[in-house]
């Protein structure tokens, strides 16, 4: 189940908010300009499903998001138990960074955690199957797919280069709980 845990950016051991209530998650994220919504997954895909098959299954939703955000490129990121070099893939996203465009993801399967540092707080957002998150351009954040990563997500881009990070050089990400914390004990 999706989860939002909010910390002061100077207190990674003391949550200010910890909830699994969808309405509360969406409202709290909306307050910082982050879109969070839930779509119904229409089908489970085999690990070898083509990008075309997955995008065809969500064609209406993909078109709506592209039209609303002006996204020109859409692809699928898929990490399975058979993906080689998972530690390096995970490490690529773990340092705080920004993007010059929105970072939009719809989770088809599996889970990942976005950490959004906004207004002196870190919002740790566990996204799971059926979750759409849109992180606005220039928002400082990082992402953890976990040590045993398994996920598939539709990604939306304004540019053809795809995912282009601008690393902040901050070490803040290493101070906050990792993926296993987010998927651990249920929120209070």
Give a written overview of the molecule.
By secondary structure, this protein is α+β, with helices and mostly antiparallel strands. The protein has a single domain, classed as Jelly Rolls (Sandwich). The chain is 21% helix and 36% strand. It has five helices and eleven strands; from the N terminus they run ββαβααβαβββββββα. The protein has helices at residues 22-31, 51-57, 59-69, 86-93, 179-182, and strands spanning 3-8, 15-19, 35-38, 73-79, 97-98, 103-118, 121-128, 131-135, 140-144, 151-157, 166-167. The strands form two sheets. Strands 1, 2, 3, 4, 6, 7, 8, 9 and 10 form a nine-stranded antiparallel sheet that branches. Strands 5-11 form a two-stranded antiparallel sheet. β6 (103-118) and β7 form a beta hairpin. It is globular and about 45 Å long. The mean pLDDT is 91.
């Amino acid at each position: 189940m999706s989860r939002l845990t909010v910390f002061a950016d100077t207190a990674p051991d003391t949550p200010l908010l910890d909830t699994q209530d969808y309405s509360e998650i969406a409202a709290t994220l909306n307050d910082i300009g982050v879109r969070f919504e839930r779509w119904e997954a229409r089908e489970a895909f085999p690990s070898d499903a083509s990008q075309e098959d997955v995008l065809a299954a969500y064609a209406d939703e993909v078109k709506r998001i592209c039209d609303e955000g002006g996204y020109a490129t859409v692809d699928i990121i898929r990490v399975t138990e058979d993906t080689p070099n998972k530690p390096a893939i995970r490490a690529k996203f773990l340092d705080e960074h920004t993007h010059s465009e929105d970072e939009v993801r719809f989770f088809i399967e599996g889970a990942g955690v976005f950490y959004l540092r906004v207004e002196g707080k870190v919002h740790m957002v566990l996204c799971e199957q059926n979750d759409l998150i849109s992180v606005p351009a220039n928002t400082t954040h990082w992402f953890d797919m976990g040590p045993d990563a398994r996920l598939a997500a539709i990604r939306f881009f304004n540019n053809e280069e795809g995912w282009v990070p601008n690393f902040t050089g901050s070490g803040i990400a290493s101070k906050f709980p990792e993926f296993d914390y987010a998927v651990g004990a249920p929120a209070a």
